[in-house]
Specification:
This protein has twelve helices and nine strands. By secondary structure, the chain is of the alpha/beta class. The chain has an eight-stranded parallel β-barrel with strand order 1-2-3-4-5-6-7-8. It is globular and about 55 Å long.
């Protein structure tokens, strides 16, 4: 078989397995997607936001982690933030140069990197939560302020494009833009932006980064919040199968109100939808700030993740950051729920970094 015929066969096989050709993503991203899909119902990856950037007792070691302090290994997924991109430090005052180093280090360890983006409004410069006249329509391709959006995306592209291995290969990344789009607290949310405008904003963002800027190493996550009528509204702002790889859920409140049944119902819905669309499903953002719920990891999160076959089909769960004694979602050494967290991460279904590497190595054999 000549080389051209071999490439054709490979393309047909990829199309058969994914339902489309993979012109949008490169080999590292395809590999990551395959690894996430291969977890099945046996394993769920555990992730933590700002693993190195924040955390009690982490000031003296740039690679120290509360998760590793307690569990003996890092989480398998590391979350980073792009808010205030174009400036020296991000929205949490973490230098982007540090984040670049963190991402490269994580990739060298075999971990997964994911990015959120609490974007400043390109027109006003206001933070994501400021809703004063955001004028989203004018940022879209036919709008008078479209170039301002492009300028922000160019900063994103420059930074994400700089995340490469020592061999100068792009590092696979999960990018989660415009999250909580079905809520009303961000300038791209329901109170200031129509469904049609949001879909155009999301689609342009992904297509510009992938097609114009050549970032083929991105898996794109769509992650609504719980909303009032979650299942009915989930797809009202969906930008399309061609620009989404991961269907997600962001949910904090249902833990606070002790409605675990609703979380299970919502996850089951997402997994069913992801299976129909041949997408990855994930619990893209959650947590319990200050761990006010007693033994939250084993009495709330773990029962939800193990509730049924659909919940066990999630690829990953991502809890929010540790910043200080007022903001933390993973216990630190000496915290009263440290033992509970250890029980959670020692469950054979939950994958930290070393566990994830073993599973993926076994799947590749």
């Amino acid at each position: 078989m000549n080389q051209q015929s071999l490439l054709l066969v490979l393309l047909i096989l990829i199309t058969a397995c994914t339902g489309k050709t993979d012109v949008a993503i490169n080999e590292p991203a395809i590999k990551l997607r395959s690894q996430l899909k291969a977890l099945g119902t046996d394993y769920i990856i555990f992730g933590h936001q700002d693993v190195f950037s924040f955390g009690e007792n982490c000031d003296t070691d740039p690679y120290r982690s509360n998760v590793k302090d307690l569990a003996g290994q890092y989480p398998a997924m590391f979350g980073w933030e792009l808010g205030h991109i174009g400036e020296q430090n991000n929205i949490d005052n973490v230098p982007f140069d540090s984040i670049r180093s963190y991402v490269k280090y994580v990739n060298s360890l075999g971990g997964i990197n994911t990015f959120s983006w609490h974007a400043k409004n390109p027109i006003s410069g206001y933070d994501a939560w400021i809703l004063n006249n955001p004028d989203v329509e004018s940022m879209l391709p036919t709008g008078k302020n479209h170039q301002l959006l492009i300028n922000k995306l160019d900063f994103i592209a420059e930074f994400l494009g700089s995340l490469k291995t020592t061999d100068n290969n792009p590092i696979p990344l999960i990018f989660r833009p415009w999250h909580d789009m079905n809520a009303d607290w961000f300038w791209w949310g329901t109170s200031t932006c129509s469904n049609e405008e949001f879909i155009s904003l999301f689609r342009f963002t992904v297509n510009y980064l992938r097609d114009e800027k050549g970032l083929k190493n991105l898996l794109i996550a769509y992650s609504p919040n719980v909303g009032q009528n979650f299942e009915q509204e989930y797809l009202t702002r969906y930008p399309g199968d061609d620009v989404v790889d991961i269907l997600g859920l962001n949910d904090y409140n249902d833990f606070i109100t002790n409605r675990l049944d609703l979380i299970v119902q919502r996850i089951s819905f997402i997994v069913n939808l992801a299976n129909k669309k041949n997408k990855i499903s994930a619990f893209t953002e959650t947590g319990n700030n200050q761990l006010k719920i007693n033994n939250w990891f084993t009495t709330n999160l773990l029962p939800v993740l193990k509730a049924n076959e659909k919940c066990r089909s999630l690829a990953y769960v991502m809890v929010w950051k540790n910043k200080n004694f007022d903001i933390f979602n993973v216990p630190y050494k000496g915290h009263e729920q440290s033992t509970d967290f250890k029980v959670f991460v020692n469950d054979k279904m939950i994958l930290l970094l070393d566990d994830y590497k073993k599973v993926t190595d076994n799947n590749n054999q």
